[in-house]
Amino acid sequence: MTAPLPIVVLPRAGQDIADAADRYVDEAGDAVAQRFADALGQAFDLLARNPGIGPLRHASLLALPGMRCWPLRPWPQLIFYVARERRVDIVRVLHGARDVPAAFAEPPPSDA
């Protein structure tokens, strides 16, 4: 068995996760947000150990070769990631009902 690859949460994915967690806190409370965070941790562990799972969803459309998608069950989010030689980059974590190409086309939020 090979060692798990390190997970690198890219800034846009980090913002996606923070936004989703904030929504869960606001709408359902801290316990639900914690279950969401726990599910993310379990999914990241699975991806670190099995970086080739998940379909190459939207990869060619978005010109991101090798980008895969993994559903965060039972949550509605989809984890978009790219398995590199020595790490797994978490690119975005989006609600499954979102227009994925449009979400990827959005400019990053400014700090201003």
Question: Could you outline the blueprint of secondary structure elements for this entry?
Answer:
Blueprint: E1 7-9, H1 11-28, H2 30-49, E2 67-71, E3 77-83, E4 88-95, H3 100-105
Parallel strand pairs: 1-4
Antiparallel strand pairs: 2-3, 3-4
Helix pairs in contact: 1-2
What does this structure look like?
- The chain is α+β, with helices and mostly antiparallel strands.
- The chain has a single domain, classed as YaeB-like fold, CATH 3.30.2310.20.
- Helix content is 39%, strand content 21%.
- It has a four-stranded mixed beta sheet with strand order 1-4-3-2.
- Strand 3 and strand 4 form a beta hairpin.
- Helix 1 packs antiparallel against helix 2.
- It is globular and about 40 Å long.
- The chain starts with 6 loop residues before the first strand and ends in a 7-residue tail after the last helix.
- The model has no long low-confidence stretch (mean pLDDT 91).
Helix share bin:
25-40%
Radius of gyration from CA coordinates: 14 Å
Number of strands: 4
As for the number of domains, it is 1
What is the CATH architecture assignment? 2-Layer Sandwich
Encode the helix/strand succession as letters.
EHHEEEH
Estimated structural class: alpha+beta
N- to C-terminal distance: 46 Å
Strand content: 15-25%
